[in-house]
């Protein structure tokens, strides 16, 4: 593999906002605000590096268990940054897609996400996937439910269901699987993130907390990815 080959699709688990704030004796909500700024900058950086697809884990299905104050702050940040992302997307020719079950959000936030997708659908430089109220198990459950409805309607034979059938009913249908998964904050787990899509994804973990993530660390992750020999089913891939 050529040195520092840029992966086509990078997925990120942005961990450490709360710890970043606590280390500075600030409320956790300050960490989330800084984390949103880092997401915005990372979109710029990824587009500049030639990454075609960037997926970030913004809010999981499990995050609803956090305090009412913290969840409320996150919802307000999402409202603000959907407008900010529209500006970024126009500047960098980025298409934005929200994945996850947005039905639980308030109507104005749903409208903002729909507008963000609609206004950027023809942009071509990079596709930015924002995972909100997303959980991989829930995504697979919803995909299976859709397939079951098609079977019930006589549109699909059970014996004809393939891996491609399932992939085509996921939130990421039509999007290539991630080549590289980056996790900040030093934790070594997938946290119910893109479980189907990351079957063969290379993983890079950094101890940096998400608000401290930057272009330098993104380049380190890409360099690590570039230097690996990858095997799929025992077959070496360049």
Report what the structure shows.
- This protein has 238 residues and is of the alpha/beta class.
- The chain has one domain: Decaprenyl diphosphate synthase-like (Undecaprenyl pyrophosphate synthetase), CATH 3.40.1180.
- Helix content is 43%, strand content 18%.
- It is built from 7 helices and 8 strands, in the order E-H-H-E-H-E-H-E-H-H-E-E-H-E-E.
- A 6-stranded parallel β-sheet has the order 3-4-2-1-5-6, sandwiched between helices. A two-stranded antiparallel sheet has the order 7-8.
- Helix 1 (17-23) packs across helix 2 (28-49), helix 2 packs parallel to helix 3 (68-92) and helix 3 packs parallel to helix 4 (107-120).
- The longest helix is centred in the middle third of the chain and has 25 residues, at 68-92.
- It is globular.
- It starts with 8 loop residues before the first strand and ends with a strand.
- The mean pLDDT is 94.
């Amino acid at each position: 593999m050529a040195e520092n080959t840029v992966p086509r699709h990078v997925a990120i688990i942005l961990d450490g906002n709360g710890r970043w704030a606590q280390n500075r004796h600030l409320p956790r909500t300050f960490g989330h605000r800084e984390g949103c700024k880092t997401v915005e900058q990372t979109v710029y950086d990824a587009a500049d590096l030639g990454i075609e697809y960037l997926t970030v884990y913004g809010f999981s299905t499990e995050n609803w268990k956090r305090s009412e104050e913290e969840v409320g702050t996150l919802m307000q940040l999402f409202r603000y940054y959907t407008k900010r992302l529209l500006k970024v997307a126009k500047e960098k020719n980025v298409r934005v897609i929200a994945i996850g079950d947005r039905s639980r959000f308030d109507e104005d936030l749903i409208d903002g996400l729909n507008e963000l997708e609609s206004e950027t659908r023809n942009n071509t430089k990079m596709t930015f996937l924002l995972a909100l109220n997303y959980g991989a198990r829930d995504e697979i459950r919803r995909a299976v439910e859709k397939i079951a409805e098609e079977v019930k309607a006589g549109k699909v034979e059970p014996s004809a269901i393939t891996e491609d059938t399932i992939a085509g009913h996921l939130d990421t249908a039509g999007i290539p699987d991630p080549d590289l998964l980056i996790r900040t904050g030093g934790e070594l787990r997938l946290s119910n993130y893109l479980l189907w899509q990351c079957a063969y994804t290379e993983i890079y973990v950094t101890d940096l907390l998400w608000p401290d993530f930057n272009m330098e660390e993104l380049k380190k992750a890409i360099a690590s990815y570039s230097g690996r020999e990858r095997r799929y089913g025992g077959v070496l891939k360049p």
